[in-house]
């Protein structure tokens, strides 16, 4: 791969990351450097001791080692280094060659000393910065014991131990985050999911700190100004699930039963002292306990890890993490600083249910390798919806499931960068690339289809059998389908090959022919969205087709779609419907494009459809037509303008608002953009001021109106509202006030410094500091853009969640001319990002970069960069192609409907 092509004219070769602050000068017109050249301090060795954990190394260790245990002692404080000692015990399997070397993984700061089976070992010389090789001469058949001293980094980002500071009281808090393969950044370890181990942790902290880990706290000893926290040994867990947190946390405890009929036990919520008064502690604790009880009954296995606590982690980079016994949640998503919407409350509940479901799928039974990541993530998402449907039958959980999963899954699966659900992975160094909509959103959608195919009861029996067979162990997708297939009395291997191993999504087009008021024929044609990736074979689908009538009950037909062209013979001769929809109930996984007659009715009458799930799906089908350049985006916005005032479902309304804003700002030609935006703002303002609407629906329309503010009058209104407590009958609190400030800054207000400073004084919290950084990134001037871009990579104290939050304002769509120059440097950073940022960041980064542009010139830059990178890692190429799709579609839609402006 050619290094740093976008910077080649400025530097003869790329410099190391430390030179990156010079990018400020470069992007202002002088010289600089790209972070893509980041290199290990030690050159990797060949074979199994290179960068990461190769599948070959993992397989060799899995066959050779058994009964792994870690006794880990760590000293942590406010410094940037955690020092510790680990005792590693393992048994060599009888069939293994006891004379083989053993390789541990470690990427920390240093190793010191060492002892193997009582013999001195110079671990420092055995370490290459990635692995330690334990020589066979020191090992023995049977039980072996290693002892090592080591150091690990503590930092705001890029470390296994994350440090945050509360600006209100200057308190320091620490917590770990080891997923997917960062346990070896913390201590020497066999860092692979199928070498589960029992872990006993001792943690030394400042005297006033509390500490939480997977195991229960056994004892706490005071030694001078320090406290030593001793935790019980865990059940067998994968290394990425080890966790601890330390700091002056406030702990709120309740006595709750974690299984039906079980005795109540202590269950605690850990949170920062400054946020404790704001937290709904009882709600959160009871929500987790309720989920544990329901899932224990559904799975036929009571919660298997004994104690259960939860922690609200500040600046957490994603929604939650399922460590058994110590689940971490994103603080900002669980404590509301303004009245929450229904969507926020359902989102918090879905996240909770997802992480609790992981206690069984992920923790109790873990995928054997990260190629089967979907086996835990997809299942947790599906079970969260199944639980919501059972516990809140009136909440229409499957509508929420559709809105949260199907659109994002389809949007990824139609791209040239899509992947199979089972994603081949040769090294855990690339495991972060497997995280994304395919495993989080497509996989649960396939589980819904599978449950529909085999029946709910057979599905449940199969899942229970799977859990019994692999208790505290590891498994694969084939073993899951075998268990469900056995319960259903059918072979699911062919179904699995089609849906687990084959990339892409079927696109189903409806073809309706009506004669004299009757259906003459109804055909469903199936094609792959990406035939070059998927092949042309039809996927096996079981669908429920709906013939909708205005004056009578609908006709619902079960249809098996196994060929590229399916004639729905049962529909022939029936009265012509108002519309046809081939995926009623959302059981199937396919992009369904309605026929022209159905589209004509839906664009005028869709709000009259009462069923909320169906209504959400139909709006989604029209949106898919827009994205496929088959429906004029202005026609879609016009339908939304008619339907939005009639919509009473908060989630559907929010999706309509978001799509209408996207269509008006991205997909509509420039000549029509202002007039369409003006119409949309008028409708949004009316909705935001309508006291008859639910709060969340009004809030979504207010937020969208703010995002569309461009003219002087609207911006002047924003300026007046920043310091107000309410507008249009809606309460204004710090989060919304910050959005007003950020919009004003992005639109070029001259007194941005005063605006940000005034708001910062009113919001003197850690979240206020983050929002001020986000606001500053919105400034539309080249020098500031360069400074922010350089700081993203050059400031080791900058928390990753701050970076993620600022992507939206930095890559503002109205700043396309300013950010165009960052497209190529942003692509140059991809290898560095993969190595140094957490899961999900790569996707957020690329989505922000691609989403900021809409011109053919930007698309040409991306394609030229791709053409010049023949050696780009396949997983990075796929991620880029996924993000590129939105830019390519935008260009195609604009080109397709450009002539209509002049008609």
Report on this structure.
The chain has 903 residues and is of the alpha+beta class. Strands 1, 2, 4, 5, 7, 8, 9, 10, 11, 12, 13 and 14 form a twelve-stranded mixed sheet that branches. A five-stranded mixed sheet has the order 15-16-17-19-18. The chain has a four-stranded mixed sheet with strand order 26-23-22-28. Strand 15 and strand 16 (265-271) form a beta hairpin. Helix 22 runs parallel beside helix 24. The two termini are 48 Å apart.
Topology record:
Layout: H1 23-27, H2 55-64, E1 65-75, E2 81-92, E3 102-105, E4 110-116, E5 119-120, H3 123-126, E6 131-134, E7 143-155, E8 161-165, E9 172-176, H4 183-186, E10 197-206, E11 210-213, E12 217-223, E13 226-231, E14 244-247, E15 250-256, E16 265-271, H5 281-299, E17 309-313, E18 320-321, E19 326-330, H6 331-334, H7 342-357, E20 365-367, H8 374-391, H9 397-413, H10 437-454, H11 456-469, E21 473-475, H12 477-488, H13 493-500, E22 506-515, E23 518-528, H14 531-534, E24 541-548, E25 555-561, E26 565-567, E27 579-581, E28 591-593, H15 596-605, H16 612-627, H17 633-643, H18 650-667, H19 670-689, H20 695-707, H21 712-721, E29 726-727, E30 730-731, H22 734-746, H23 752-762, H24 766-776, H25 782-794, H26 800-810, H27 816-819, H28 823-828, H29 830-836, H30 841-851, H31 856-867, H32 874-897
Parallel strand pairs: 1-10, 7-8, 16-17, 17-19, 20-21, 22-28
Antiparallel strand pairs: 1-2, 2-7, 3-6, 4-5, 4-7, 8-9, 9-14, 10-13, 11-14, 12-13, 15-16, 18-19, 22-23, 23-26, 24-25, 24-27, 29-30
Helix pairs in contact: 5-7, 7-8, 8-9, 8-10, 9-10, 9-16, 10-11, 11-12, 17-18, 18-19, 18-20, 19-20, 21-22, 22-23, 22-24, 23-24, 24-26, 30-32, 31-32
């Amino acid at each position: 791969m050619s290094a740093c092509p976008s910077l080649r004219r400025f530097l003869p070769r790329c410099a190391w990351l430390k030179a990156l602050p010079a990018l400020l000068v470069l992007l202002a017109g002088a010289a600089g450097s790209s972070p893509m050249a980041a290199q290990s301090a030690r050159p990797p060795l060949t074979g199994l001791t290179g960068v990461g954990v190769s599948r070959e190394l993992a397989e060799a260790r899995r066959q050779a080692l058994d009964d792994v245990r870690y006794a880990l002692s760590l000293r942590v404080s406010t410094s940037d280094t955690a020092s510790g000692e680990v005792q590693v015990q393992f048994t060599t399997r009888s069939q293994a060659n006891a004379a083989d070397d053993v390789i541990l993984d470690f990427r920390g700061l240093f190793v010191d000393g060492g002892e193997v089976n009582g013999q001195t070992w110079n671990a420092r010389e055995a370490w290459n910065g990635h692995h330690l090789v334990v020589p066979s001469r020191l090992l023995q058949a049977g039980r072996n014991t290693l002892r090592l001293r080591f150091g690990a980094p503590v930092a705001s980002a890029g470390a296994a131990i994350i440090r945050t500071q509360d600006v209100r009281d200057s308190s320091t808090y620490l917590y770990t985050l080891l997923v997917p393969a960062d346990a070896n950044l913390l201590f020497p370890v066999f860092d692979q999911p199928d070498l589960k181990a029992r872990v006993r942790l001792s943690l030394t902290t400042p005297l006033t700190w509390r500490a939480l880990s997977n195991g229960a706290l056994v004892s706490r000893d005071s030694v001078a100004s320090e406290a030593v926290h001793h935790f019980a040994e865990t059940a067998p867990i994968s290394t990425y699930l080890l966790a601890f947190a330390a700091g002056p946390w406030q702990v709120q405890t309740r006595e709750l039963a974690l299984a039906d009929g079980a005795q109540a036990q202590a269950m605690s919520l850990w949170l920062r002292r400054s946020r404790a008064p704001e937290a709904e502690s009882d709600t959160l604790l009871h929500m987790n306990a309720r989920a544990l009880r329901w899932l224990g009954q559904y799975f036929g296995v009571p919660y298997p890890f004994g104690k259960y606590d939860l922690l609200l982690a500040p600046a957490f980079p994603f929604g939650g993490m399922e460590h058994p016994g110590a689940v971490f949640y994103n603080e900002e998503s669980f404590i509301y600083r303004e009245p929450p919407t229904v969507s926020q409350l359902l989102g918090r509940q879905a996240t909770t249910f997802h992480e609790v479901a992981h206690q069984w799928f992920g923790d109790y039974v873990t995928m054997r390798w990260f190629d089967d990541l979907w086996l835990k993530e997809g299942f947790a998402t599906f079970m969260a919806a199944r639980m919501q449907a059972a516990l809140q039958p009136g909440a229409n959980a499957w509508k929420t499931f559709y809105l949260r999963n199907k659109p994002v899954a389809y949007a990824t699966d139609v791209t040239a960068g899509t992947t199979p659900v089972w994603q081949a992975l040769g090294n855990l160094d690339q495991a972060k690339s497997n995280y994304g909509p395919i495993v989080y959103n497509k996989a649960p959608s396939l589980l819904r289809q599978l449950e529909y195919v085999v029946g709910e009861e057979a599905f449940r029996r199969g899942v229970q059998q799977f859990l019994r067979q692999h208790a505290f162990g590891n498994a694969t997708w084939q073993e899951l389908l075998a268990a469900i297939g056995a319960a259903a009395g059918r072979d699911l291997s062919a179904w699995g090959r089609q849906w687990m191993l084959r990339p892409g999504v079927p696109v189903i087009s409806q073809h309706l022919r009506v004669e004299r008021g009757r259906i003459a024929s109804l055909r469903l044609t199936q094609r792959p969205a990406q035939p070059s990736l998927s092949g042309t074979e039809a996927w096996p689908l079981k669908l429920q087709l709906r013939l909708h009538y205005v004056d009578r009950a609908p006709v619902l037909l079960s249809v098996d779609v196994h060929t590229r062209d399916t004639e729905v013979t049962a529909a022939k001769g029936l009265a012509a419907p108002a519309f046809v929809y081939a995926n009623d109930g959302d059981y199937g996984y396919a992009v369904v494009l309605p026929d022209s007659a159905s589209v004509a009715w839906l664009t005028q009458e869709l709000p009259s459809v009462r069923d909320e799930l169906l209504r959400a799906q139909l709006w989604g089908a029209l949106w898919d037509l827009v994205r496929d350049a088959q429906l004029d985006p202005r026609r879609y916005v016009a339908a939304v303008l008619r339907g939005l005032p009639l919509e009473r479902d908060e989630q559907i309304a929010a999706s309509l608002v978001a799509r209408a804003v996207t269509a008006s700002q991205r997909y509509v030609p420039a000549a029509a953009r202002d007039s369409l935006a003006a119409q949309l703002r008028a409708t949004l303002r009316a909705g935001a001021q309508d006291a008859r609407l639910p709060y969340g629906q009004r809030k979504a329309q207010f937020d969208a109106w703010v995002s569309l503010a461009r003219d002087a009058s609207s911006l002047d209104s924003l300026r007046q509202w920043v310091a107000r407590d309410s507008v249009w009958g809606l309460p204004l609190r710090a989060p919304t006030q910050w959005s007003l400030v950020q919009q004003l800054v992005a639109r070029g207000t001259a007194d941005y410094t005063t605006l940000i400073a005034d708001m910062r004084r009113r919001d003197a919290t850690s979240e206020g500091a983050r929002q001020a950084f986000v606001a500053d990134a919105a400034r539309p001037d080249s020098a500031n853009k360069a400074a922010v871009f350089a700081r993203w990579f050059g400031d080791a104290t900058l928390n990753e969640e701050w970076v993620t939050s600022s992507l939206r304002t930095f890559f503002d769509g109205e700043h396309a001319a300013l950010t165009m120059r960052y497209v190529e440097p942003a692509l140059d950073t991809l290898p560095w990002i993969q190595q140094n940022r957490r899961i999900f960041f790569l996707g957020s980064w690329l989505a922000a970069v691609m989403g900021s542009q809409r011109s053919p010139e930007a698309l040409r830059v991306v394609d030229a960069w791709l053409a010049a990178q023949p050696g780009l890692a396949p997983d990075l190429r796929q991620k880029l192609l996924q993000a590129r799709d939105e830019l390519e579609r935008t260009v195609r839609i604009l080109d397709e409907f450009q002539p209509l402006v002049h008609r």
